[in-house]
Design a protein that fits this description.
single chain, alpha+beta
Length: 325
C-alpha cells in the first residue's frame, strides 16, 4: 500500500511513500526527450517531454511508480486492489496498458488541463507487461501547481475526481475516502474547548488534544485521514530546504515500519521502501529509503535531455552517517 501527497509553497512539491513487502531494485530513471516510447496498441512516440521518476529496475522499459516531467506535471500510481478494472481493446480510443499510462501522459501533457483532455479518450487495456510481470491494480494521482485529480479505472469506466485534499492512499475509492473525512470534522491543531456538557469541569492536560481521534493505524483509510490532517495543518518557510524537509515530515506521519504490517512467513512485512519528493517546478527529485534516511537528490536539468538513451541511478539504500568527531 502507499500514500501520495502534494504540497505548495513557492514551488509545487509532489511525492509518495512506496509501501510494499518486496523491492524490485528501484532506481531513479530519467527518460530524455528522444527516447523512443514503444506502446502495445498505439503508435510509438519518438519525441516527448523529458521525465524523471522512480521505476522498477527489472527491464529496460521505464516502469515508473511515480514521476514528473520537465513541464512540472507529476503522477503517482498506487495500489487499488479489488477495485481496478482494465478493459478490452476499444476502437476509437487511446488504448494504453496501465504500465504505459505514466509515460504517455507525462510524455504528451504539459499541465493538468492537457492531461485531463487526453484522459477523455484513454482506455486502459488488460495486457500484462510479460508472463512474469502481470498488471498491478492501480489508480493514480496527477498534480501540478494548479491542483490535483485522481484517476480510477472502475467497473463502470474511467473515473476522474477533482482532489481538493491533495492526498491519495489505496482503498476504498477516492470519493469514499473523501467522504470519510467527515468523521474527523471536529479535529483541530488547537486544543479543544470544554463542550462535554453537564457542567463537568474538564481541562486540557496536554498539547495536541485537539487531534484526539485522528487515526494512527496503518490501514489505507486511516493513512488518508492522518496525512490529510498533517498536510492541511503543515507550516514551513517557503525556501527549498524548509519545503522539502516539511514534505518528508508530512509523508513521515504515515510511514510504515518493518514488523507492523505482517504479510506472510517467514518475516515478510510491508514497509516504506522509499519516500519521494519532487520539486516539479525545478525538475528535482529528492528521496529517502528505508535504510537510508539521508535525503538524496537528482536534478533532471543536469542531464542531456536531448538524448535517446535512458539514464538510471540505483537508489542508495545504505545508511549514511555524518560523524562530527
Amino acid at each position: 500500500m502507499c500514500t501520495a501527497s502534494n504540497y505548495l509553497t513557492d514551488d509545487h512539491y509532489f511525492g509518495r511513500n512506496f509501501d510494499y513487502e518486496i523491492s524490485y531494485n528501484e532506481r531513479v530513471t530519467i527518460t530524455p526527450r528522444n527516447y523512443k516510447f514503444k506502446f502495445r496498441k498505439i503508435e510509438d512516440i519518438d519525441s516527448h517531454h523529458a521525465i524523471i521518476g522512480i521505476a522498477a529496475g527489472i527491464d529496460s522499459y521505464p516502469l515508473y511508480y511515480d514521476a514528473c516531467n520537465e513541464k512540472g506535471l507529476s503522477i503517482a500510481g498506487l495500489n487499488f486492489p479489488d477495485n481496478a478494472v482494465y478493459r478490452e481493446y476499444e476502437d476509437g480510443k487511446i488504448n494504453l496498458t496501465p504500465f504505459e499510462f505514466i509515460p504517455y501522459l507525462l510524455g504528451k501533457a504539459a499541465n493538468l488541463n492537457e492531461a485531463e483532455e487526453l484522459l477523455s479518450d484513454i482506455n486502459l487495456v488488460n495486457i500484462n507487461f510479460s508472463d512474469e510481470l502481470p498488471l498491478s491494480p492501480l489508480h493514480w494521482m496527477i498534480s501540478d501547481d494548479s491542483g490535483a485529480i485522481v484517476v480510477e479505472p472502475l467497473n463502470d469506466g474511467l473515473k476522474i475526481y477533482y482532489n481538493p485534499i491533495g492526498v491519495l492512499t489505496n482503498n476504498p475509492p477516492f470519493d469514499k475516502q473523501l467522504f470519510y473525512l467527515n468523521n474527523y470534522i471536529s479535529l483541530s491543531n488547537k486544543n479543544p474547548q470544554n463542550t462535554f456538557g453537564g457542567n463537568i469541569k474538564l481541562f486540557d492536560y496536554s498539547r495536541g488534544m485537539g487531534a484526539i481521534g485522528l487515526p494512527g493505524d496503518l490501514s489505507s483509510a486511516s493513512r488518508f485521514a492522518k496525512v490529510a490532517f498533517t498536510r492541511a495543518n503543515s507550516y514551513s518557510e517557503f525556501d527549498e530546504a524548509s519545503s522539502v524537509s516539511q514534505f518528508f515530515h508530512i509523508l513521515g506521519s504515515v510511514e510504515q515500519q518493518k514488523g507492523c504490517t505482517f504479510i506472510d512467513e517467514p518475516n515478510l512485512y510491508e514497509y516504506t521502501i522509499y519516500t519521494s519528493c519532487y520539486n516539479t517546478n525545478k525538475g528535482i527529485l529528492y528521496y529517502k529509503t528505508y535504510n537510508n534516511s539521508q535525503i538524496t537528490s537528482v536534478d533532471l536539468n543536469k542531464e542531456d535531455l536531448d538524448s535517446n538513451e535512458l539514464i538510471n541511478y540505483l537508489l542508495i539504500n545504505e545508511e549514511q552517517f555524518n560523524f562530527i568527531n
